[in-house]
Amino acid sequence: MKDLPLSIAIHDDPTRAGGLGFLGSAPAESRESANERTSGTDRIQAGGASRTVYLETFGCQMNELDSELVRGHLAALGYRFVPHAEGADVVLYNTCSVREQAEQKVWSRLGIMGKRKQAGAAGTAESGWSSGFVLGVIGCMAEREGPTMMRRFPHVDLMCGPGELDKLPMLIDNACRTRALDSLERAEARAASIALQGNNHRRSSTLAAASDNLEMLDLSRAFDPDRAEHAGRSAYVRITRGCNKFCTYCVVPFTRGAEVHRPPQAIIDECRRLADAGVIEITLLGQTVNHYHYVHGAAVGADGMELPQVGGRANGQRSAVSAQRSTSFADLLRRIHDEVPTIERLRFVTSYPRDFGDDVLAVMRDSPRICRYLHVPAQSGSNRILRMMNRGYSVQEYLDFIERARAFLPDVCIAGDFIVGFPTETDDDFAQTCELLERVRLKNSFIFKYSPRPGTTAIERFEDDVPDDVKRRRNNALLALQGRISAEVHREWEGREVDVFVERISRTSGSSDRRTSRAPHGVELRWERKGTARSMRASHASAEVQEVQLSGRTSGDLIVVFSSTDQNPEGLVGRIVRARVVGSAPLILRGEVIHK
Ligand code: 5AD
Ligand code: SF4
């Protein structure tokens, strides 16, 4: 149990900095009033206008979206974002708690920052470092670690859980002002720089969710095309927050709280605004995105507008109000597809195997702009382990789902997640996982070694009894198996034509026979010049004219790399081009643009 108040809401007056009244487009008046409260003695002022912020994001796409919203919110208040922590007035880490490794990176950052702060206080700070910058931890680690982190790292000035991000400007303000106080006053004031829901606080009623101010952060999103991915033409849109599944290994239901579903109209309006700003690819986000279900009339604000509401039960049953008019995930997909036709690509992650009805697959089949891509974690191929994980489906049900998906969508590409080394996992359990992967032939998998997480059922009930070297061996074996299957899946695409959403550009050296490039999501691409005679000729010819290499994704999320000698290759980024697949490797397809 946390020993802090569940949520310290300090001021919610929308006319003040940190309130919710001017998200997205800050009226000049609000900005001025924020500046009026400048302390005067402090180089960092109470308004955002003069502050620079460095924000580093760890973890999943949900965190990336949170960071984008935070960036928009703070930028609207006059904060300026900088690419390096060095010299920034505010350093923020948006953190992930899913595995220990992700947390360790942040611990190490905090250690380094602590030394910098000490050096600042002693007047020996290296040049370039702001003396006494504000250090903040936001996201899942803040929520999970709570006050422990403040004790362990007294130089952390603020903490803000993922469910409280709308309060971040206010917390930064408080932290900046606290810095001017003496140490006793400071200790007391630090409590005002914490906003957490509390591990055990789970919204339990529709009303509680309805009054959730966090919705405002999504609603008032200040989309900045210059900062957005892929030339501002790709964006995430959240449809649900939190999770009700309680898989026994997972911290997410504790850090992100109960599953809350946004009203369909708010989601569609957001998609339309993004489309109007030039976005052509939208990825809908939810921990279990296909669990989306909104019951109309159950949560309505004083202004008659529908509000976010708590989701259905984890067992997949709908509540007693299901007889009322509702919007299912399939309905939502169809509405976005039909009502925002300039979105050329509509994707969604992450799906839960059990909640995937034929209605969703039918909408996908009938909607050409919905991508042929599914990310559906299996986690294990052993029914015994799946039960211990509380996943709520059997291996056969997962297999049946994959078969159904391929029957509806013959071209669908499916990715999955697996955890190896879950407590008590035997060689035989692991062999069953390999067998499942062989049978479902996923295009790629994210494979993780089990990491016991504080607060979860698994850590409390099951001993972490699979030795690390066994976990590592199973991890490598599954990766190797997936590598072989990925290579086969990619090879099947050779000779076909695909539409590629061009995501980035990476200039090749032109002189070397061995090339390396960074593709999306940190995949490193390497290949030697050997391929077909045709691609050899293309490579040699283009080396002389400074060949440019681009990469993008198919509708099924396969990475395609292709060369261009276009005068303006930058102009291709953010566009969809037609390409023929001329080669493949385990992680990529090699393409040639088809000029029509
Ligand atoms: N240990 C290892 N992997 C985990 N995941 C979630 N929690 C843990 C954990 N404690 C993995 C799951 C999930 C993905 C996002 O992270 O595979 O699907
Ligand atoms: Fe975690 Fe399970 Fe929810 Fe996914 S479905 S976020 S693994 S509890």
Characterization of the model:
With 596 residues, the protein is an alpha/beta fold. The protein folds into four domains: 28-198, Methylthiotransferase, N-terminal domain (Rossmann fold, 3-Layer(aba) Sandwich); 207-371, Transcription Regulator spoIIAA (2-Layer Sandwich); 372-492, Transcription Regulator spoIIAA; 497-593, no CATH class. The protein is 35% helix and 20% strand. The protein contains 20 helices and 24 strands. Strands 2-1-3-4-5-6 form a six-stranded parallel β-sheet, with helices on both faces. Strands 18-21-22-24-23 form a five-stranded mixed beta barrel. Strand 21 (548-553) and strand 22 form a beta hairpin. Helix 13 packs parallel to helix 14 (358-366). The radius of gyration is 25 Å and the shape is globular. The termini are far apart. 5'-deoxyadenosine binds next to strand 16.
Can you give me a brief rundown of this structure?
Helix content is 35%, strand content 20%.
SSE arrangement:
Elements lengths: L27 H9 L15 E6 L3 H16 L3 E2 L8 E6 L4 H22 L12 E6 H6 L1 H6 L5 E3 L7 H11 L4 H8 L3 E2 L10 H5 L3 H6 L9 H4 L1 E5 L1 E2 L10 H4 L4 E2 L2 H13 L4 E5 L7 E3 L13 E2 L15 E3 H11 L5 E5 L8 H9 L6 E3 L7 H7 L5 H14 L4 E8 L6 H14 L3 E6 L7 H5 L6 H24 L5 E11 L6 E5 L5 E5 L4 H12 L3 E6 L5 E6 L11 E9 L3 E6 L3
Parallel strand pairs: 1-2, 1-3, 3-4, 4-5, 5-6, 7-10, 10-14, 15-16, 16-17, 22-24
Antiparallel strand pairs: 8-9, 9-12, 11-13, 18-21, 18-23, 19-20, 21-22, 23-24
Helix pairs in contact: 12-13, 13-14, 17-19
Bound molecules: 5'-deoxyadenosine and iron/sulfur cluster (SF4).
